[in-house]
Write a structure and sequence with these properties.
mainly alpha, 4% strand, flat, 2 strands, 98 residues, 3 helices
């Protein structure tokens, strides 16, 4: 059962991606190959093989949180280009309103 351009159009709509008819026809067989590859990997996965997120075992290094001396707020804010209400003032982003 292969993916059709209509299937890809449905996926593109859900992902809010606008694709031309030519792109839909081009992507359908490519996505079908990807899905078949994932299905083959699923067939190989055995119950005696634990799932992993990385090929090598990783160990995260943590340290205890500890209070320690830091710069005074006034001294830090004195070096900032702009400050407001004891905080760094930064430009607004993403069309935020006041």
């Amino acid at each position: 059962m292969g993916l059709t351009p209509n299937d890809v159009a449905d996926l593109a709509r859900l992902a809010r991606i606008e694709l031309s008819d030519a792109e839909l026809a081009h992507l359908a067989p490519q996505l079908d190959v990807i899905l078949e590859s994932v299905a083959r990997v699923s067939e190989v996965a055995a119950d005696d093989i634990p799932p992993t997120s990385h090929a090598l075992p990783l160990t995260n290094v943590f340290r205890d949180d500890a209070l320690r001396p830091s710069l005074p707020r006034d001294q830090v804010l004195a070096g900032a280009p702009a400050s407001e209400l004891d905080r760094f003032r930064v430009p607004r982003i993403l069309g935020e309103e006041a």
